[in-house]
């Protein structure tokens, strides 16, 4: 159960706190920094430091921990995507850096498979790039990619969801890397949540991609943080386009609004260090136990189907899939979402984009809240 002072800081302002059964979503605030990260951020308050230098040494530490050529801390994975496209188009040319988002005279097309279009590919356009689809809704062939690459191509982009079934109708990352590099163009990878198993953490750059992004919020860093991994050339260019390049080098790049503070930078380093040494068996065991607590009051309820999500890959392990039969309980899955949201306390969840079920995650749940969520669903069905 929630404590008496739960959410009081919001309540005093007239805002309504919620129980987050949706997961690590930006809509609800993304993450809660863990103790090691908070300690590092507090320690960072003790002195000022030139951020152009701090970004360099912090990136070097992350790159060393992950075994990749270079890294750069950004204001979220979406920021890394935007800065990377700027780097692919303008490189390290200061005149071109200051010309963006006007891409005249630069390669400005980011190629993406039609079947891989996704919500966050918008971030690839914000520095002035143009998304160009290759293949169609039925799938992609190697020739589709070969024929799509031209002098206008800045990069070829791939999104990775290792926790989802492989789509046999899209080109694999290995195919994309081979074809794209043969044409002399770079490969970009959105792997924002691919932080577990640990061998997946940074593996796409190790496979040959020139860039990949990670959302640091998934590891207990502040919600507003992420980082880019990649070749030294790409990461150096990202730094030139970033807010510290704007201020430290006095070059007016598109990355100026993508600001991050010294406390967050140190928090990300601490989060990565913790993640690489964490007992992940204990972490997964805890997530499974929370999920089972949600399931317990739902077993055997007429009109309710509830099952454990057994996935452990990526950033949100375990969880519960719940659906209701409207002919039995008298309302739909969407109605259940509304009932939970309108309850006291308000519990936020949502219907999955992949299947007609509520996809409940335990990432954002505090002590005792898993039991509360399970009981609230049971009450909504039986009440």
Summarize the SSE layout with pairings:
Layout: H1 8-11, E1 18-20, H2 35-44, H3 51-66, E2 70-74, H4 77-90, H5 94-99, E3 109-113, E4 130-134, H6 142-148, E5 153-159, H7 173-182, E6 187-190, H8 203-207, E7 211-215, E8 226-230, H9 232-241, H10 243-248, H11 262-277, H12 280-295, E9 304-308, E10 320-324, H13 326-329, H14 333-342, E11 346-348, E12 358-360, H15 369-382
Parallel strand pairs: 1-11, 3-4, 3-5, 5-6, 6-7
Antiparallel strand pairs: 2-8, 7-8, 9-10, 10-12
Helix pairs in contact: 2-11, 3-11, 4-9, 12-15
The secondary structure category is alpha/beta
In the CATH hierarchy, what is the architecture of the largest domain at level 2? 3-Layer(aba) Sandwich
Cα(first) to Cα(last) distance is 20 Å
Rg calculated over all Cα atoms: 22 Å
Number of strands: 12
Question: Superfamily at the CATH H level of the largest domain?
Answer: Type I PLP-dependent aspartate aminotransferase-like (Major domain)
Number of domains: 2
The largest β sheet comes out as:
7 strands, mixed
Biggest sheet strand line-up = 2-8-7-6-5-3-4
Task: Describe the protein.
The protein is α/β, with parallel strands linked by helices. The chain folds into two domains: 8-30 and 279-382, Aspartate Aminotransferase, domain 1 (Alpha-Beta Complex), CATH 3.90.1150; 35-277, Type I PLP-dependent aspartate aminotransferase-like (Major domain) (Aspartate Aminotransferase, domain 2). The protein is built from 15 helices and twelve strands. The chain has helices spanning 8-11, 35-44, 51-66, 77-90, 94-99, 142-148, 173-182, 203-207, 232-241, 243-248, 262-277, 280-295, 326-329, 333-342, 369-382, and strands at residues 18-20, 70-74, 109-113, 130-134, 153-159, 187-190, 211-215, 226-230, 304-308, 320-324, 346-348, 358-360. It has a seven-stranded mixed β-sheet, with helices on both faces. Helix 2 packs antiparallel against helix 11 (262-277). The mean pLDDT is 96.
């Amino acid at each position: 159960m929630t404590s008496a002072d739960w959410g009081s800081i919001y309540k005093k302002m007239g805002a309504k706190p919620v129980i987050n059964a949706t997961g690590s979503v930006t809509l609800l605030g993304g993450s809660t920094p863990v103790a090691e990260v908070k300690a590092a951020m507090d320690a960072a308050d003790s002195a000022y430091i030139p951020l152009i230098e701090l970004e360099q040494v912090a990136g070097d530490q992350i790159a060393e921990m992950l075994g990749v050529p270079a890294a750069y801390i950004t204001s979220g994975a979406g920021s890394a995507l935007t800065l990377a496209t700027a780097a692919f188009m303008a490189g390290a040319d200061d005149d071109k850096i200051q010309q963006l988002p006007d891409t005249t005279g630069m390669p400005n097309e980011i190629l993406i498979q039609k079947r891989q279009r996704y919500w966050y590919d918008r971030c690839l356009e914000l520095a002035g790039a143009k998304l160009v689809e290759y293949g169609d809704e039925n799938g992609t062939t190697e020739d589709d990619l070969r024929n799509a690459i031209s002098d206008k191509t800045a990069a070829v982009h791939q999104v990775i969801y290792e926790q989802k079934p492989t789509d046999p109708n899209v080109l694999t990352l290995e195919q994309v890397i081979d074809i794209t590099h043969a044409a002399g163009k770079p490969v970009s990878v959105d792997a924002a949540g691919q932080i577990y198993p640990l061998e997946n953490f940074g593996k796409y750059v190790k496979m040959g991609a020139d860039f990949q992004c990670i959302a640091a919020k998934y590891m207990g860093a502040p919600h507003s943080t992420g980082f880019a991994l990649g070749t030294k050339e790409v990461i150096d260019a990202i730094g030139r386009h970033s807010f510290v390049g704007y201020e430290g080098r006095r070059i007016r790049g598109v990355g100026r609004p993508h600001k991050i503070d010294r406390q967050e930078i140190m928090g990300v380093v601490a989060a990565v260090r913790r993640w690489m040494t964490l007992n992940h068996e204990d972490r997964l065991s805890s997530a499974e136990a929370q999920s089972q607590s949600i399931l317990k009051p739902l077993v055997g309820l007429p009109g309710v189907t509830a099952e454990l999500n057994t996935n452990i890959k990526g950033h949100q392990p375990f969880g519960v899939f719940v659906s209701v039969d409207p002919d039995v309980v008298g309302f739909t899955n969407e109605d259940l979402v509304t009932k939970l949201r309108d309850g006291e306390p308000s519990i936020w969840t949502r219907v999955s984009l992949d299947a007609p079920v509520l996809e409940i995650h335990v990432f954002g749940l505090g002590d005792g809240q898993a039991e509360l969520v399970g009981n609230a669903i049971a009450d909504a069905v039986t009440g």
